[in-house]
Write a structure and sequence with these properties.
The complex is a heterodimer of chains A (187) and B (383). In chain A, 22% of the residues lie in helices and 19% in strands. By secondary structure, chain A is an alpha/beta fold. A five-stranded mixed β-barrel of chain A has the order 2-3-4-6-5. In chain A, helix 3 links the parallel strand 1 and strand 2. Chain B has two domains: 176 residues, no CATH class; 162 residues, no CATH class. Chain B is 49% helix and 21% strand. Chain B contains 14 helices and 16 strands. In chain B, strands 5-6-11-8-10-9 form a six-stranded mixed beta barrel. A two-stranded antiparallel sheet of chain B has the order 2-12. Chain B is elongated and about 90 Å long. The chains are: A alpha/beta (187), B alpha+beta (383). The interface between A and B is medium-sized, with 36 and 30 residues.
Chain lengths: 187, 383
């Protein structure tokens, strides 16, 4: 009887410890990463090792939207709260003329790339979607953050041409090359 | 080792002290159950309200509050045409352009209460598949559909919102056409209008959001890409689960306050309990010394004291759980987003059990150490 009660107390104690250990679990599915791995051979080819010559700003590039020519455009990844698409090789590039929050002295905005201090109409007129497509013209199902050092607020230069379905209100560049400028780590 | 019956008999040697210890234990564990049930109820409501396959298209900049969002009505048809991978059932695309509005409902005796209103079309039930009409019909012009917990949120009797009853909304009269259920989600606290009716009532010509159900959770990437390919629409695509997770974080301080309040009262009870234990053990110093003289080691005496403490805590756990079942389980708590139900789920009960075991194991250690460390001759002469 005594032993049975002692065992019961021990089991209750173990139950409490096991409950505490039973916590959250679950790992992200590896199937998505497996799909990305198959594209790794393609995306890195887009990454340029040296800066293309004579890039133009985003706003300046709109003048070449109807030419069909390959252009080189530089800008900052931003212009909205979440400029990098999750799951597809596409991101929004904003003109450097926009007032980004980290350029305002004393501003500690957690998302400086959204340029929320800027005139909304100017933001709307100063950004373009950059996307990498396959031979069929479909956006590559790759998250650029996973295969490159691309992140919000980074200055990048892309080489490509405006898409056929691009409009002045919704400009789209089909990119062929991506150059990531050195990050400014100064205070 | 000392027999277990020794520990059990000692419990009732001083009934007054036993009841005090038991009351302290019941208080601490009841508070823990209440705080855990409150937090879990709120978190479960907000998590269940967000489906992984559902994506909300909001106005850019309004990602944290759908009530502030305004998007053109045409966005609904653009999303239907432009976003691939939308779920479809019987040929109907799961796309719902909705209006979310906080407004005043007249609840009688001249009293107005804030209520969450949603303007919908029938496709809303293709998107919010956890919702179903349990009584009555889909509202036509001049009618509303009320959630099962809407009456509780408004602080009125459920009978007042039965089909056929009339309610006053922004000084306009509406008939309750039906009641819908959406178990465990914030939707159940809402009042749903025919979308055109609500637009007319609040003089609005824009939507708050277009809610879309994708074929799978991976469909979010397609929705996000569409929002960026159409920069002119100024949309943000947010997974519904992310939207409600962000809201849950917003209520983090409230949940933190609940734990803090429980902790502060609990600390007071623990201090009182420790005080009681010190006094109790001090009164038994001679007894404990006698046991050691008879050949029982300090470890055996300590184990017996821990057994007594565990018995009190486990009994306190049973009484606290009983009180919680009567007073807390099934209680509805209203907050700005809706109403959630406090439930004594297995994790809540097991957490309290773990706390009881911890209190029982660790609580007697400081006073026991003090009592057992005294030299035997001195302890035998103590009063």
């Amino acid at each position: 009887m005594k032993k049975a009660i002692h065992i019961l107390i021990g089991l209750l104690s173990c139950a409490g410890i096991l409950t505490a250990l039973a916590g959250c679990g679950g790992e992200a599915s590896e199937s998505a990463r497996g799909a990305v791995a198959s594209e790794l051979a393609v995306v890195p080819a887009f990454v340029l090792t040296s800066a293309p010559a004579d890039p133009m700003g985003v706003v300046e590039s709109f003048s070449a939207a109807d030419s069909g020519e390959t252009i080189t455009v530089t800008g900052r990844v931003g212009g909205m709260a979440s400029p990098i698409t999750a799951g597809y090789a596409a991101f929004v590039l904003a003109d450097e003329s926009l007032l980004f929050c980290d350029e305002v002295e004393g501003d500690s905005c957690p998302q400086p790339w959204d340029a929320c201090c800027e005139d909304p109409a100017k933001i709307k007129a100063s950004r373009v979607l950059v996307q990498f497509v396959d031979e069929a013209g479909m956006p590559l199902p790759v998250d650029l953050r996973e295969v490159t050092d691309l992140k919000e607020n980074r200055t990048v230069t892309v080489k490509g041409r405006f898409a056929g379905q691009s409009t002045p209100e919704s400009p789209i560049i089909l990119a062929e090359g991506l150059y990531l400028a050195e990050e400014d780590t100064s205070g | 080792m000392l027999p277990f019956s020794y520990a059990a008999r000692n419990l009732l040697r001083n009934p007054g002290r036993f009841l005090q210890k038991l009351a302290g234990s019941v208080l601490i564990l009841f508070l823990l159950l209440a705080a855990a049930a409150f937090n879990e109820g709120m978190e479960r409501l907000l998590q269940a309200s967000g489906s992984p396959e559902t994506v909300i298209f909001l106005g850019a900049g309004s990602e944290e509050s759908v009530e502030r969002s305004q998007i053109p009505v045409q966005t609904e048809s653009m999303v239907m045409a432009g976003v691939p991978g939308i779920a479809r059932r019987a040929g109907v695309l799961a796309v719902s352009g909705e209006i979310n509005h906080m407004g005043l409902i007249g609840v009688g005796r001249g009293k107005d209460v804030q209520a969450v209103m949603r303007g919908i079309r029938p496709a809303a039930f293709e998107v919010h598949r956890e919702a179903r009409i349990s009584e009555g019909l889909f509202p036509r012009m001049g009618e509303v559909l009320v959630g099962r917990l809407a009456a509780h949120s408004l602080g009125i009797e459920p009978e007042a919102l039965k089909p056929g009853k009339r309610i006053e909304v922004e000084e306009e009269s509406y008939t309750v056409a039906g009641v819908f259920e959406a178990e465990g989600t914030v939707l159940e606290s809402e009042i749903w209008f025919n979308r055109q009716d609500l637009m007319t009532l609040i003089q609005r010509d824009t939507l708050s959001a277009v809610v879309v159900r994708m074929e799978s959770a991976q469909g979010y990437a397609l929705a996000d890409l569409f929002a960026k390919q159409r920069l002119d629409l100024e949309l943000a695509a947010v997974p519904e689960s992310t939207y409600y997770a962000n809201l849950a974080r917003f209520y983090g301080p409230i949940r933190g306050m609940t734990w803090l309040t429980a902790a502060l009262v609990g600390i007071g009870a623990v201090m009182g309990g420790l005080n009681l234990l010190y006094a109790s053990f001090a009164a038994r110093i001679r007894e404990l010394a006698t046991l050691q003289t008879l050949g029982y080691g300090r470890r055996a005496v300590l184990v017996s004291l821990i057994q007594e403490s565990l018995l009190v805590q486990l009994l306190g756990m049973v009484l606290a759980a009983l009180a919680a079942v009567i007073l807390i389980d099934g209680s509805r708590v209203q907050f700005s987003m809706g109403t959630f139900v406090m439930e004594l789920s297995p994790p809540v009960i097991l957490a309290s059990l773990a706390a009881a075991l911890l209190l029982g194991l660790l609580g007697p250690l400081p006073p026991a150490a003090r009592s057992l460390r005294m030299p035997l001759p001195k302890a035998l002469r103590s009063h």
